[in-house]
Structures are given as C-alpha cells and as structure tokens.
Design brief:
Layout (H helix, E strand, L loop, with lengths): L15 H15 L4 E3 L1 E3 L2 E3 L4 E6 L2 E10 L3 H18 L4 H17 L1 H11 L4 H25 L11 E9 L2 E5 L7 H12 L3 E4 L6 H13 L7 E3 L4 H10 L5 E5 L2 H12 L10 E5 L4 E5 L5 H13 L9 E7 L3 H13 L18 H17 L1 E4 L3 E2 L5 E2 L2 E4 L6 H4 L6 E7 L2 H9 L3 E2 L1 E5 L3 H10 L4 E4 L16 E2 L17 E9 L1
Parallel strand pairs: 1-5, 7-8, 7-10, 8-9, 10-11, 12-13, 12-20, 13-18, 17-18, 20-21
Antiparallel strand pairs: 2-3, 4-5, 6-23, 14-17, 15-16, 19-22
Helix pairs in contact: 1-4, 3-5, 4-5, 5-6, 10-11
Bound molecules: nicotinamide-adenine-dinucleotide.
The site of nicotinamide-adenine-dinucleotide (NAD) has 31 residues, from helix 8 and helix 9.
C-alpha cells in the first residue's frame, strides 16, 4: 500500500548538524567542477564537439561543468529512440511506472544536500531556496506517482441496463519538455516526470544556464530503473534545435515553462499541422507573471510588510510568482512602505555559498534587463531603497523599492524578473482590485486584510490562478497549492495538482452493449 502524500520537510538550517552537512555538500559539489556532461539518447551517452559551459553566476570565472550540445541530427535520433521506447513503456502497468518515481524520490532524498548545493553554484540559489527547490522536485515525484495510480483506475461514469461503460486514460506518445532555469530542479523534474509516469516518452531540452542539475535528474531516473529511451536528454542551443523539437510531426505534446515571448511562439508554432502529422499537439505553456500584493486598510501591517519583502526579494525576485507590485490603501500606505524598507535593510546580498539571504541574478542578459528597469523606475517613481548593482565578479543587484508609481508605469506592467518592487496607493478596495487586475498577466496574487467581505470579493474578482490570503504570493507547495496562471501567464496547467497528469493522457470511453 502506498502511504498518503505528505510534502518533503524543509531543512532546518538553525541546527548545527544540518549546516555542517550542507557545507560538506558544497565542498563535495565543488570537487566535481569542470566535469563533462553528455547527451543521453536511448540510454547511450553521446559527447559532441559543440559544448556549452555552465557558469556560476556569483563568480563568472568558475565553470561548473561542460555540456555537450545536440544538433538537429541528434534530436532526430532522440525522436526515433523515444518512438521505439513508447511501444513498451506505454504498456507498463502504471503502478510499476509510479514505483520508479518513488525510488527516484528516495535517491534524491538521500542526495538532497548535493542537489541543493549544485543549485547554490549553478543557479545562485541561497541555501533555503535551494533546499525548497530540491524538496519540491521530490514532492513532484511522490505526488504524480500517486496521481497516476489513482488515474489508472479511470473515472466512474454511468452504466445503464444493457450497457456497460468505462472511462479510462491512455498515454499520448512522444513529447518535448522545455523548462526554465529558475526552479532549476523542481520544474525540470516536474515537467519531465509527469508525462513519463503517464506512460509517454520524452525529449528534454534543459535551460542553457542550469543543465547540470538537469543531468543529475537523468542519472537518478536511470538508477531508479527507467528504461532506455523513455527520457532522452538533449541540451542544445534553442535557436538551433528549439523549432525542430516543437515542429516535429512526431511531437504529441510540448510541456513548456518559461517566458511569455518563448511560450507564445511555441504555442503558435505547435498549432501548425506538419506534413505526415495526424494529430493536434497538446501544448502546456506556463509563462511569466506581474504579481500583486494588496494591503487593505484593516490589516496586519507587519504581516503585510513581511509578505511583500519576502515575496519580492526571495531568490532575488526571480520567481514567476514574485511580488513586483504592492497596492496599498492610502490610509496605511506610508506605514507599510516604511516597515518594508526597514525589513529590506536587514537583507544580506552576496555569494550564496556564505548563506546570504540574496545571491546573484542568473546571467549578464538578466542583469542588463533588470538594471535597465531600475533606470526606468527612477524616471517613473521615487527610488526609496536599493538600486545598486555590481557585476565585476558576479551579477549582484540589491533589493530595490520604488514608491509613488502610477499603476500604468512600465515597471508596474512589465515582468522584470529581478529584485524590484513598486508601491502604489489606492483609495478603496474597488480601486485596489482594479489596479491588481490591470496587467496582462494573471499568475499569483495576495490580499492582506481582516475584512471578510473584501476577502470574499477577491476570491471571485482577483483574476489570478493562485490567490493567497494573509500570506505572501510565492512558495506554492505540491499537492497543497496547485500552480498555474490565467491570462498571459499561460495555460493554467496547475502543476502539482489533481488535474495536471491529464495534460499528458488521452481519455477514452469504452461502451459495450450487453
Ligand atoms: P525562456 O523563455 O528564455 O526559456 C525557457 C526555456 O525555453 C529554456 O529551456 C530555453 O532554452 C527555451 N527556449 C528558448 N527559446 C526557444 C525556442 N525558440 N524554442 C524552444 N525553446 C526555446 O525563459 P527563462 O528565462 O528560462 O525563464 C524565465 C521565465 O519563466 C519568466 O518569465 C518566468 O516568469 C517564467 N516562469 C514561469 C513559471 C510558471 O509556472 N508560470 C515558472 C517558472 C518560470
């Protein structure tokens, strides 16, 4: 019997023995720097001439590892291997497929600090953030395994005299998984193993900035007993192989998480039926956010400031769910702003190896983009705190607060994906909801309020996929807060929720006349 799902606990880093274990893991991972990582196609490890280096964003000189790069020919080989593997994998008992995930979860649990330490170096994740990322990956394995067991029974529908009916789920075929770098383990893991446990075979193209933690997932799944060809690891330059993966007539689904620009492009391209293609592609695109915390007049102002600061600056604001807009009732605006500034002053910024609250942003491109928005913010509002940045060794940007912004300001409308939050004043609750909903995105949002009527209105009128009351707008947990956005935030696939696996399954009705 499989025990009910419970989420993986976070490591308590106030305990000396846990700190020591994590420091040991950081040393161990450092000892692995410079290794080569190959493609994995049909179980075969393939080294290519073309390589990509994975760099530590805290220290640009430090090469974490070197990764072979697939070209279209090798991607074609991966499609063929996935097609072949689908013939048998799709026939496996779903319970046995789930057991592979449970075993993989146990392996990652044993190597937990090693995985988190890898993300400290490769993604610039502070300890607690890296630990939560690894825990989320484990949760996805445990949760989707259980979901698949449940769905293997199909769903109940009605029979009638003389007729027996069945409603069952079948795997779809070969698909493509394209994750982002920010939840470097959790998303790469969740978006890959969900279609796999559903009986599909996958080509996974990891993000350019974090391919090594993705390669470690491949290792773990192999060790857990995943047959050859079920997961094909094809890192590569997206401008070279991205379209090939999406356009391929074999592709049955694309499971993408990343920016709006890439997501909408994939959505459009996947809609075109290619020569030889006899199906429509199912596309999951989970994209960006412009997430708002509303602070009502009648509310706990300390909780409000704490929620804004943690949601805005945790992992340097590089979460799709990060708070980048604080909409505050005019009567409490000054106080919440002041409290938020005081809390932000206490945050440490630096190399996360040293257990800082904030680390670097991921790369030069993001550094330039975020500092560009800070310059725009200085024109659009009042810089109240931060604004400094430094990129000689790594890509460091200090937590930055702008106040007195018009809700239409660029930095209140466009996704920055960095440690920048804008404050704006509202005259009443209607006004707050109007501002909150006035963006293209609809991913997360939070309301800090003691007014039950206002909370009830927000439940219906705050147009986001993940709405939180009296807490921050980040830190969704698998099985507790299924995740996905409305509007231009994507297809609302609700990762970590009871409807997610159906994205990679075909429901079939079988009816027999008796
Ligand atoms: P990105 O769009 O630049 O890259 C995402 C992935 O797409 C990468 O693997 C990249 O190599 C690949 N890619 C790029 N161009 C491609 C192409 N033409 N064809 C196929 N693949 C291509 O995004 P990013 O910078 O890695 O991630 C940050 C973004 O992700 C932010 O907008 C953030 O909000 C979003 N995000 C959303 C969620 C969510 O659940 N909604 C979660 C995490 C991140």
């Amino acid at each position: 019997m499989v025990l009910p799902f419970t989420h993986e606990p976070f490591t308590d880093f106030t305990k000396k023995e846990n700190r020591k274990a994590f420091e040991d893991a950081l040393e161990q991972v450092k000892g692995e720097f410079g290794k080569d990582y190959n493609l994995v196609i049909g179980g075969e490890r393939i080294a290519t001439k073309k390589k990509n280096q994975s760099i530590n964003p805290s220290n640009k000189e430090q090469v974490i590892g070197t990764v072979s790069q697939a070209d279209t020919e090798l991607v074609e080989k991966a499609f063929q291997s996935a097609k072949e593997a689908f013939k048998t994998w799709s026939q496996w008992d779903p319970k046995v497929r789930a057991e592979i995930l449970f075993r993989a979860a146990a392996i990652v649990r044993r190597r937990k600090h090693e995985f988190s330490a890898t993300m400290v170096y490769e993604a610039g994740k502070p300890w607690g953030q890296a630990d939560a990322d690894t825990a989320e990956g484990i949760d996805f394995m445990e949760y989707y395994g259980r979901q698949m067991i449940e769905l293997s029974e199909g769903k109940e529908i009605n029979d009638r005299p003389g007729e027996n009916n069945e409603y069952i789920y079948q795997p779809t075929g070969v698909g493509v998984t394209i994750p982002p770098w920010n939840f470097a383990f959790a998303i790469v893991c969740g978006t890959t193993i969900a279609p796999i446990v559903a009986g599909n075979t996958v080509l996974q193209k990891p993000a350019e900035d974090t391919p090594i933690i993705a390669a470690k997932l491949v290792e773990v799944l192999e060790e857990a007993g995943l047959p050859k060809g079920v997961l094909n690891f094809v890192p590569g330059d997206p401008s070279e192989i991205g379209d090939y993966l999406v356009d391929h007539p074999t592709t049955k689904f694309v499971n993408f998480t990343g920016s709006r620009a890439t997501g909408t492009r994939i959505y459009e391209k996947a809609a075109k039926v290619q020569e030889g293609q006899k199906h429509l592609k199912h596309v999951v695109v989970e994209m960006g956010g412009k997430d708002t915390i509303i602070v009502d007049k009648d509310s706990d102002l300390d909780l409000a400031a704490d929620s804004i600061v943690n949601s805005a600056f945790g992992f340097q604001g590089q979460k799709c769910s990060a708070c980048s807009r604080a909409v505050i009732h005019e009567d409490v605006y000054d106080e919440v702003l002041e409290k938020s500034i005081e809390l932000t002053k206490k945050l440490s910024v630096g190399d996360p190896v040293n257990d800082t609250f904030m680390g670097p942003v991921i790369n030069q491109k993001q550094f330039d983009k975020i500092t560009g928005y800070i310059d725009i913010g200085k024109e659009e509002g009042e810089l109240k705190f931060g604004g400094e940045s430094e990129s000689s060794k790594g890509y460091f940007i200090h937590p930055t607060i702008f106040a007195d912004l018009d809700s239409k300001a660029k930095i209140m409308q466009e996704e920055i994906f960095g440690p920048v939050v804008g404050f704006t004043k509202a005259k009443d609750f209607d006004h707050m909801l109007d501002i909150a909903n006035d963006t293209d995105y609809g991913l997360t949002g939070a309301v800090i309020s003691n007014n039950r009527e206002h909370l009830n209105r927000a439940r219906k009128e705050f147009n986001v996929g993940n709405l939180y009351f009296n807490r921050g707008c980040t830190a969704a947990i698998v099985g507790y807060h299924p995740f996905g956005g409305f509007k231009m935030s994507g297809t609302d696939a609700k990762a970590g929720g009871p409807d997610y696996l159906q994205n990679f399954l075909q429901a079939k009705t079988v009816s027999e006349q008796l």
